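thread: overnight batch results

M.L. [08:02]
morning all. the overnight job finished for the chain we discussed friday. pasting input first so we're all looking at the same thing
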Amino acid sequence: MKNKYFPDEDIKINDLYFICYMIERVARHIKQKNKYVVNTIGRDGLYHLISCAEVLHCENPLKVESDWINDYELEKEIMILLLLIRNLLQSFQRPLIWAQYIVV
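M.L. [08:03]
and the structure it wrote out:
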């Protein structure tokens, strides 16, 4: 595969490993699946990122991670928040159920 910005250069296997590592890192940070990150970034975005991977190797991974999240508008999973709210509501309803048995 040829580099998008430097057609005379090939993309190296280390560039691919770096992109896979960053996809995994971003997915873990936002608590989403890798598939979500890849599909949201898209083919053109991934081609851009893999072409720039040789430069991105030198940057702080935390900065690259936050840049990807902001640039590609990746969102955290809200399912965890919904589960916490549901569990909280259930914990408030349980004492009411027990109170009915105690009163009778």
